Amino acid sequence: MDAQTQARFEAQARIIKAMAHPTRLFIVDQLSKGEKCVFELTEMIGADMSTVSKHLAVLKAAGILSDSKRGLQVYYTLCCPCVMTFFNCVESVLRTNAEQHLSFVE
Amino acid sequence: MDAQTQARFEAQARIIKAMAHPTRLFIVDQLSKGEKCVFELTEMIGADMSTVSKHLAVLKAAGILSDSKRGLQVYYTLCCPCVMTFFNCVESVLRTNAEQHLSFVE
DNA sequence: TTGCTATTTGGTATTATAGCCAAATAGCAA
DNA sequence: TTGCTATTTGGCTATAATACCAAATAGCAA
Fold it and tell me: Does B15 score more than 50 pLDDT?
């Protein structure tokens, strides 16, 4: 495996890793319906606001979200709506698992 | 967030987490071209065979790969070729990042 | 300025992940 | 059986991720 190929997989892994957490998937799902501020997301998630803020920072660092400060609030937006195709793809893996009685859902 | 919703995101996160490693992405990419045994993958990756074997076990546990033993070799196959749409999606996030001079590639 | 609210950052404990080596297991062949 | 090869598993260490609390920062308003 040459260095360039490796670098490409590392870059891809960084994006995927940023999505690899239930709370962050929830955030992406919510933001696909429109921007939200940290407080709104924190209420929905029910964790400490600092925890939510750090999850948002992870997604932003990966280039999945962007933020804009308006007054006291910071609003986060999905910058790459294509990310939503992730969900379809993952769901189809889950369905395949379910068919093979290897479901993680239930 | 109700328990069922949470369970769905946790199930999705497990699949995504299994993909969130450069070596495992490489494996998935290779297997998209056809089945390979552990030895072949180990040669390409250049890590310890036990390390490769553990990566394969992670992907298998997530329901992304299946294995079949034939003689001394264990052959691994992608059970969900849809997983390849991941790559397109991730690449488009990377392109967006690059456009915004936030590229992780270079 | 002071005070209030929204958010981020720092510190820390806990838990999970990754990689290697060594040992165990499985299958074939002599 | 013994020996050889392919693979997995166990043990270990090092590194990274997560979540909370507390403290710092930023912006508005009085």
Answer: yes
Reported ipTM = 0.91
Q: A-chain residues within 8 Å CB-CB of B79?
A: 96
| ∠ Cα B96 B98 B104 (to 5°) | 115
Question: Cβ distance A14 to B104 under 8 Å?
Answer: yes
Architecture of the B3-79 domain: Orthogonal Bundle (1.10)
Contact A25 B6 (CB under 8 A): no
Three state DSSP letters for B26-45: HHHHHHCCCCEEHHHHHHHH
Q: Of A85, A86, A81, A42, which Cα lies nearest the Cα of A65? A: A81
Q: Delimit the domains of chain B by residue range.
A: 3-79
Q: What is the pLDDT of residues A21-79, one digit of tens each?
A: 999 999 999 999 999 999 999 999 999 999 999 999 999 999 999 999 999 999 999 99
Residues of A in contact with B22 (CB under 8 A): 6, 9-10, 12-13
Interatomic distance A19 CA / C16 C1' (Å): 17
Q: Taking the mean position of all CA atoms in its chain, how far away is CA B50?
A: 17
The answer to whether B9 faces chain A, any CB pair under 8 Å, is yes
